[in-house]
Design a protein that fits this description.
- This protein has about 350 residues and is an alpha/beta fold.
- It is about 35% helix and about 10% strand.
- The chain has a domain at about 30-195: NADP-dependent oxidoreductase domain (TIM Barrel, Alpha-Beta Barrel), CATH 3.20.20.100.
- Strand 5, helix 3 and strand 6 (about 125-130) form a beta-alpha-beta unit.
- Helix 1 runs parallel beside helix 2, helix 1 (about 45-60) packs across helix 9 and helix 7 crosses helix 8 (about 265-275).
- The longest helix has 17 residues, at about 155-170.
- It starts with 20 loop residues before the first strand and ends in a 35-residue tail after the last helix.
- Bound molecules: NADP nicotinamide-adenine-dinucleotide phosphate.
Length: about 350
Amino acid sequence: MTTRPAFAFAPDGIDPSTVPARTLASGARMPCIGLGTFGSDHVSHEAVAAAVLESAAVGYRHFDCAAVYGNERRIGESFRAMLESGLITREELWVTSKVWNDSHGRVIEACRQSLDDLSVDYLDLYLVHWPFPNFHPPKCDVTSRSADAQPYIHEQFMRTWRRMERLVEMGLVRHIGTSNVTIPKLELILRDAEIPPACNELELHPHFQQPALFDYLVSAGIVPIGYSPVGSPARPERDRTPEDTVDIEDPVIVEIARAHGVHPAVICIKWAAQRGAAPIPMSVTRRNFLANLRAMTEDPLTDAEMAAIAGIDRNCRLIKGQVFLWKDGQSWEDLWDLDGVITPA
Ligand SMILES: NC(=O)c1ccc[n+]([C@@H]2O[C@H](COP(=O)([O-])OP(=O)(O)OC[C@H]3O[C@@H](n4cnc5c(N)ncnc54)[C@H](OP(=O)(O)O)[C@@H]3O)[C@@H](O)[C@H]2O)c1
């Protein structure tokens, strides 16, 4: 039997009402920074759950979860502790989860499982984690390929999306969204959806700014949620290639960080939020997640600093998705429709 952790506000925390929000097309307001919860293979479920609880104590209200992270049950214990303390209401929290690739055909059951694990009776946002229904085992090597892997098949994706829409009708989910999609895919989804995506989660950091997709989302009224906003410095070796660059070592970021007296990671997060994204940095280190939240409320970057960071894009995608490729001889670029059309089967 596990003992329920206790919850109390931290005296050095930030008043959550001072943290800016992103307004979704529905009018709902989502805190502009969320805590990422993907511990990958180096941060335990317990450590992530403890960070969720402690980050709420310092003022976080937005949490980016996913079934495939394997830790939703532990995180649910932290949510229960917050809610049972009576200090935070469910309405004050913003809880995101994502349906994993092996559950596109059973979205409603997968969502019910996440609700149960997270100890909440609705989600604020539920995302289709990847637009491919391809299973691969957690922690597998990048060369791993699923025997029944498939490309993006729009009709099939829309069957999944109908199930997502049904969740909204059932009251289990307030908003639905996409993740890891491209403009060509979004054009089809927006054409055919009854409920358009409220948000899209995408990789965004100073060395991977995705300006065309970012602008497309904003003009379509879809809120961009930026993942790996620090450049995922602790990602496992299998997710690294020799060409990858390091945002927090970029001289422009380092110099701006020195001028503001903060860690370069904080500058990446400030830039993301001031650009209009909602960054979701992962952190289990109290000093770091508190600094990231504080960065939303004080000492903004100047226009010149924002412009300098806009100039350091390296088009360096870190989460390439190799494990989702569906036939031999492909390269990861085939997942991302780089020539503006969906890569055919
Ligand atoms: N939709 C998707 O397909 C998708 C894909 C990838 C990620 N995500 C989401 O995005 C979240 C964040 O992405 P990520 O985990 O890849 O990478 P990230 O947030 O860019 O980087 C996390 C790393 O940065 C460090 N860090 C954070 N704030 C810091 C600070 N102020 N100073 C120094 N170091 C700092 C953390 O260390 P400490 O823990 O020591 O602070 C941690 O090792 C994930 O957890 C997940 O929720 C979604």
